[in-house]
Amino acid sequence: MKSSVSARLNADILEEKYALWSEDPSSVDGTWGAFFEGFELGCAQLKPRGAAAATTATSASGPAPDGDLAFYGKVVSLVYNYRTLGHTQADINPIGAPENNPRLALKQFGFTEADLDREASNPFFRDGAKMKLRDMLAALSVTYSGPIGFEFMHIHNTTVRHWVRERIERHALREVDPPNRQYKSLAWLLEAEAFESFVGKKFLGEKRFSLEGGEGAMVILNSILNACPREGVLEIEMGMSHRGRLNVLANFLAKSLPTILFEFTPNYVPDLVAGDGDVKYHLGYEGVRKLEDGEVRVSLAANPSHLEAVNSVVEGKARARQRFIGDDGSTTDRKRVLPILMHGDAAFAGQGSVAEVLNLSQLPGYRTGGTIHIIVNNQIGFTTMPADARSSSYATDVAKMIEAPILHVNGEEPMELYWAGMFALEFRQKFGRDIVIDMYCYRRQGHNETDQAAFTQPHIYRQLEGRDTVGQIYKKKLVAEGVISADEADELDKKIWDRLEDGYKKMLEYEAAGDRTVFSGSTAVAQESYNHAPVPTGISKEVIQRVGKVLTTVPDGFHLHPTLAKRFVPRRIEALEKGGPIDWAFAESLAWGALLLEGNQVRLSGQDCRRGTFSQRHAVFYDSETRERYIPLQNLDENQAKFCVYNSLLSEFAVLGFDYGYSLGAPNMLTMWEAQFGDFSNGCQVIIDQFISSAESKWQTPSDIVLLLPHGYEGMGPEHSSARLERFLQLCAEKNMIVANFTTPAQYFHALRRQKKRGFRKPMIVMTPKSLLTRPEAVSRLDEFGEGSCFQEILPDSMTFDDPSRVNRIIFCTGKVYYDLQAHRKEHDIKNSAIIRIEQLYPFHNEMLEAIISQYPSAAKYVWCQEEPLNMGAWSYIFPRLERVLGQKVRYAGRDRASSPAAGSKAMHYREQKALIDSAFSV
């Protein structure tokens, strides 16, 4: 058996190489070129004589019908080229006729009309069955240029490619599609069409971003869903943009029809959702679908109008769910939770986040066992035609980067759509890889139902005038073929329409009765309101020592890098013995270790985060001789929670979206994303704006993800100084997230632990340090981590004043600049100025500030000092709040307004820094 498989794979390689050489001799290496040159030379000069010649020919390249090796070589090339290029002339566009590809013309391969009646066979096609060349050509056309165009020859793995090829060719041999499959497909199409028609009539002029013209997507989705139980899938995590979303909610996720209809009425107010709510075609939903063979939980993630933004969020949710149900690779290899992403053609080709998310698919910290991508290819983006929207042949070409099979399917061929869905699921379950279904269809309406599409596509919309819907076309076909009777078809139509009318009637009854509970969405998560109540986050000395010992121990025989062995580890051992000093990275690891022992999982991902951008963390030790890895925090206790730390791909958008999604699916896990430098968060602003800062208000989906953004002015130029603190503060309202800039490792320790110790969840944005990671003053003592200790939103002055009444100036600041202010005060022996640190900028703790400043009754001058330019940093946010508490004007000490975050010259930086520190004590 093994040798047989090997022989087939070798034959597969031979076929591919020969076809490549036939088209371009330079495309294969010299050894193959020499072989094929000799092969064709022999074909041209020799005519086989006798059994010996026949045996030689067969052993070289398989059987040679008619004893003609040259003819056989052409057949090999023909089959290969149809597999490679057949999709280019496939009948996949329901409103356009296919065009023959001249590269697949007979003369391209050297065949004549007389050759059509010659007997041909190819061991790579239909197991070498003999047939006339004309029959082989017809079979190839049916298989590779029919209603599905297949792209799979770009897959390098021959096992995968062989598997795909066999199923494609087996599908082409089918004679009759099962009647029950045809009936189900018809029902799904008619349900989708009736929904759009019904809503359009009941709510004239209301936007719904309909699925009209692309109803075939419901056949794909439902065929996948129905196959899930037998393929072992228990859950589907799904993402899509707004087009067709209401139809999917109604007919795929089975969201309450009265709820969907009520959302169209002018009386709808989302009073069951805390915050502002969102439009109906952005909302998420989840429910359990009961099927013939079992149940499947289906969840559709809420999504803004930023196309493709939700993709990585869904992947993160899926991976979290896989861990939650034990589908994380230990036994079932991520087969029980299936991600499905629906895309538009223009967005799939145009949005760079698509490539970023595809790149996640096989990475250890981010893979989800393969995603099924369904492209509803309307062949337009708003009003932009494909020729203006992409440089590639297909919208799907970007998916070739991960060698995903691509099926271009005619959206008006229900049985092909049904098979494509089942094939995609089977492939995903078999190989744990992504697959793409590109469904060619059209938009029957414009961008929305009030848009006049004929303004920009007059020719297309003349074609669509009076054209039957796909459901009606298919219904007539099944009636004509006797699959169902006309009466059965009419009864199916009536049943679907009656259900819609019944849903509308119930909606009116519920509304009249004032019963709003039926209208609630299942994805909303209620939680208690934010409060400033202190949360005990300290840990016992025993836990500190226990975690610390593991962090400073490596296995016997492990070759730790000399620098770590001589400095990093001994420094930590000494700190544990002497009660400090504890630096930033050590405090972080202690916080994680204590959470792990308490049963909270911890995940950190980001660029180079295992070591840390500044060589501060070393969460993973590498053997300096073998590169074997050792992760101390995975070795605390046999009953500890899971600790995960992953170096990410060089992406911000996809990785932050993934980790945000993970935080939604794993609420008991401390999930963190670290930017290599704070300003790298620029690359994921959509995730921050549309999800992290506003999701709780829009969709009532709380998260407590932590963003670690290195921030601080050290004279290193404009690019890596600022994490753009001002942008996060501008997004703050309704207690939606925490924005902080800590000055001590102990504060960081307590803030991390506080994320898992409160009764509510909020994202936390942390301006993490760079130079403070190693600054001698920026350390904490072990007793600051002990039992009874907690995080403090505002830190009073660390200096003890002999007479606080002599203090007439209070300087407020946040983050690193505190140490520069402190050093200046000490150097100049200033006794009349207090320095107060705002550790948590938002939510702002007014009462704590009032209590602290009350210690200085003689204070008359109040200054806010920051390193950032006047139009950046916290100034615009903080001064109104300070003035409201203080009752008087606050002065500013900092850099002037600037368009760039920082100076490029180190000398200029030091001059500016000195000036702003001086002004804090004199302004």
UniProtKB/TrEMBL annotation:
InterPro entries: 2oxoglutarate_DH_E1, DH_E1, KGD_C_sf, ODO-1/KGD_C, THDP-binding, Transketolase-like_Pyr-bd. Transmembrane segments: none annotated. The keyword Oxidoreductase applies. Its cofactor is thiamine diphosphate. Signal peptide: none annotated. The keyword Transmembrane does not apply. Pfam families: E1_dh (PF00676), OxoGdeHyase_C (PF16870), Transket_pyr (PF02779). Keywords: Oxidoreductase, Thiamine pyrophosphate. It comes from the Bacteria. Residues 582-775 form the Transketolase-like pyrimidine-binding domain. GO terms for molecular function: oxoglutarate dehydrogenase (succinyl-transferring) activity. Its EC number is 1.2.4.2. E1 component of the 2-oxoglutarate dehydrogenase (OGDH) complex which catalyzes the decarboxylation of 2-oxoglutarate, the first step in the conversion of 2-oxoglutarate to succinyl-CoA and CO(2). This is oxoglutarate dehydrogenase (succinyl-transferring). It comes from Haloferula chungangensis.
